[in-house]
Amino acid sequence: MYTTFPVIGHDWAVAQMQRAFNNGRVRHAFLLQGPASIGKTTFARSIAMALNCTNEPKPCGECRACRLIASNGHPDIAIVEAERIGGTLKINQIRELQRQLALRPYEGRYRVAILRRFQEAQAAAQNAILKTLEEPVGNVVLILTAEEPSAILPTIHSRCQIFNLRPLSITSTTDALERSWGVERDKASVLAHLSAGRIGWAVRSLEDEKELEFRQNAISLLEQSLNSTRVQCFQLVDGLNLDKSRTLDMLDFWQTYWRDVMLLAVGSKAALTNIDHEASLITVAQHVGQDDAQRALEATRTALIQLSGNANSRLCLEVLMLNYPKLN
Ligand SMILES: [Zn+2]
Predict the structure, then answer these.
(1) Which residues are placed with Cβ below 5 angstroms of ligand 1, an ion?
(2) How far is the CA of 65 from the centre of ligand 1 (A)?
(3) What is the pLDDT of residues 145-187, one digit of tens each?
(4) DSSP line for 180-205
(5) How far is the CA of 201 from the centre of ligand 1 (A)?
(6) Phi, psi of 282, rounded to the nearest 5 degrees
(7) 42 alpha carbon to ligand 1 midpoint, in Å?
(8) What is the Å distance from ligand 1's center to 210 Cα?
């Protein structure tokens, strides 16, 4: 389908949204679910553009409205999120937003609120936004993004059009890095693999080499813990100085690691994420086998969910390392 939405990947979701625009049947509330850094906010912003664009076809990407939205400077588009990743989206932020939404659009046709990482919204904040969802106003559109759907009230789910977004394919991530960021093909391919289709992370690591270094350290730490005693594991965790956001990043990488071990343990031919650690992955897969790899993967996912809530980072990591299989 022809579309001008400035979104990388997520073709089916963009096509569905484009059809809604073509038919003049755009809903007033959306929930974009999926892992971090796969382009949920970019998709949300492109919906806001299409709603307020003054050219054809929408979004044109060039009119004043499109440009202001792309640079987060449009007066009718509000982005609401917890003060930091791993923080809490509070009820007073929702009340403030509701005051803004009650006003007529200042410049555009629609007021659009993008509520990022809505899994971090406290219960009172979720209940408060329900009121806006239950009494839709013609020129107000809400777009929620979330990594962890289980943390969101079912009543919110039922009032939104839901898009379950997945990481991009390695090929489309590689193509995008090459085409839109001018990355040389081989480098783009490696980055695409390491990113596991999280294009946002791939782009961040282009701009800041520390991202790659952080990932390398995260994987090394995990491999070290597999060869460590219980006491040594506690020392490893004690030696870390990570805030919650970085701990979540680290667990994302650990998740890709166990997924790779699983793939190797079952003899799958699917592409590995951590292609630069293939040798050690093969060793780990031979030692731990499918069941232990599966358990480690699940334990990592559970830790991610707990940590997205109010769990203590250090305790979470200690429990996790105890649940991981040992190589010696
Ligand atoms: Zn435009």
Answers:
(1) 53, 55, 60, 63, 66
(2) 6
(3) 999 888 899 999 999 999 999 999 999 999 999 999 999 999 9
(4) HH---HHHHHHHHHHHTT-HHHHHHH
(5) 27
(6) -65, -45
(7) 15
(8) 35
What pLDDT shows up at residue 138? 84
Q: In the chain, where does DSSP find H-type helix?
A: 11-22, 40-52, 64-70, 91-101, 123-134, 154-159, 170-181, 185-195, 199-207, 210-226, 230-238, 244-265, 278-308, 313-323
Token pair belonging to 79: 């982005």
Question: Does the global pTM surpass 0.85?
Answer: yes
CA-atom Rg of the chain in angstroms: 21
Query: CA nearest 42: which of 67, 82, 8?
Result: 8
Q: Which among 260, 259, 274, 271 is positioned nearest to 220, based on CA atoms?
A: 274
Residue type, 308: S
- Whole-number Å distance, alpha carbon 146 to ligand 1 midpoint, is 27
What secondary structure letter does DSSP report for 272? P
- Whole-number Å distance, alpha carbon 78 to ligand 1 midpoint, is 18
Domain annotation for the chain: domains and CATH numbers: 11-164 (3.40.50.300), 209-323 (1.20.272)
Tokens of 218: 């995260």
Give the whole-angstrom CA distance, residue 312 versus residue 230: 19
